[in-house]
Amino acid sequence: MAKVALVTGAGQGIGKAIAERLAKDGFSVVVVARHMDALQKVVEGIKANGGEAFAVTADVAKRDEVFAAVDQAVEHYGDFNVMVNNAGVAPTTPIDTVTPEDLQKVYSINVGGTIWGVQAAHAAFKKLGHPGKIINATSQAGVVGNPNLTVYSSSKFAIRGITQVTARELAEEGTTVNAYAPGIVKTPMMMDIAHQVGKNAGKSDEWGMQTFAKDIALKRLSEPEDVANAVAFLAGPDSDYITGQTLEVDGGMQFH
Ligand SMILES: NC(=O)C1=CN([C@@H]2O[C@H](COP(=O)(O)OP(=O)(O)OC[C@H]3O[C@@H](n4cnc5c(N)ncnc54)[C@H](O)[C@@H]3O)[C@@H](O)[C@H]2O)C=CC1
Ligand SMILES: CC(=O)C(C)=O
User: Fold this and answer.
1) Using an 8 Å Cβ cutoff, are 16 and 50 in contact?
2) What separation in Å is there between the alpha carbon of 193 and the centre of ligand 2?
3) Was 74 annotated as part of a binding site?
4) Which of 189, 195, 205, 249 for mutating ligand 2's site (highest number of atoms within 8 Å of CB)?
5) Is residue 160 in some structural domain?
6) Is residue 204 part of a domain?
7) What is the CATH number of the domain that holds 175?
8) Residue 14 to residue 226: CA distance in whole angstroms
């Protein structure tokens, strides 16, 4: 039987590329986001390429909706093996502009959504009686503080913390928990940040993008597929002895 993976935030950008790649690798893929129309297009694309996929709507900030999505995955495919907590939001928030609403929204989606995803996946693995793999989206901005992104960047630092803690908690059962840290990826999220940072400085979107992209050693922006390649490794058997780690997929923005 094919292994089953669920990807949140799969309606566009990195999540869509991950869903497409995992389907190509033979997973039955459950694609999750808030809007069914975008998800249905992703499902149609995967099926047209010979893959298997199924769409479920959920707001990852809502614990019961995340649990319901995982339950639907198990019900539909009869198993559950990989959880990719990819959904996230990234408003541009120079420190003096941060509001309680920004904090509440970003933390409930980025941090809460990751915690609910880990919980729901763990509950399913326990019920099914086998371990699985949990993979969380952090960011290069969750490894090094990024100007203008106080709320987002700190939420992505938290996701590395959640990854390390839960990797230790779930290791005994054989479940691995890892994270991927993309760099500057050509998606609607990054285009919006570049636009806002450029606008705040009275400059262009390209200028805004360069404030983030200037340090990429490989000298090109990332495609969503670059990130999907790394997630495919974390979802597959070649990463079985890796847990609690963050795989930096940033073209060499920083070295440790
Ligand atoms: N684009 C980039 O340069 C980078 C992105 N990332 C991270 O990668 C992940 C994906 O980012 P992108 O594809 O660029 O973003 P995007 O904005 O293009 O796509 C995000 C997806 O998440 C969904 N989503 C947002 N809030 C949701 C919620 N409450 N419940 C369910 N779905 C929700 C959106 O509908 C969308 O489908 C995010 O966690 C982001 O923080 C990390 C580093 C760099
Ligand atoms: C959006 C993001 O994660 C950046 C700029 O690293």
Assistant:
1) no
2) 8
3) no
4) 189
5) yes
6) no
7) 3.40.50.720
8) 9
Tell how far the Cα of 69 is from the centroid of ligand 1, in angstroms. 18
User: Does residue 180 have its Cβ closer than 6 Å to ligand 2?
Assistant: no
Phi, psi dihedral angles at 238 (to 5 degrees): -70, -15
Test site for ligand 2: of 212, 221, 227, most ligand atoms within 8 A of the Cβ = 212
Average pLDDT, rounded, for the chain: 97
CB 15 within 8 A of CB 53: no
CB 140 near ligand 2, within 6 Å: yes
216 assigned to some structural domain: no
C-alpha closest to that of 133 among 96, 170, 169, 107: 170
Number of structural domains (the chain) is 1
| Residue 30 annotated as binding site | no
Protein residue with least CA distance to atom 1, ligand 2: 190
Spatial neighbors of 72 by CB under 8 A, at least 6 apart, are: 30, 56
DSSP secondary structure of 173-236: TT-EEEEEEE-SB-SHHHHHHHHHHHHHTT--HHHHHHHHHTT-TT-SPBPHHHHHHHHHHHHS
In angstroms, the CA 26 to CA 23 distance is: 5
Q: In this predicted model, what pLDDT tens digit does every residue of 89-141 receive, in sequence order?
A: 999 999 999 999 999 999 999 999 999 999 999 999 999 999 999 999 999 99
User: 135-170 pLDDT, tens per residue?
Assistant: 999 999 999 999 999 999 999 999 999 999 999 999
Domain span including residue 106: 4-90+98-182+223-245
Interface predicted TM-score (ipTM): 0.99
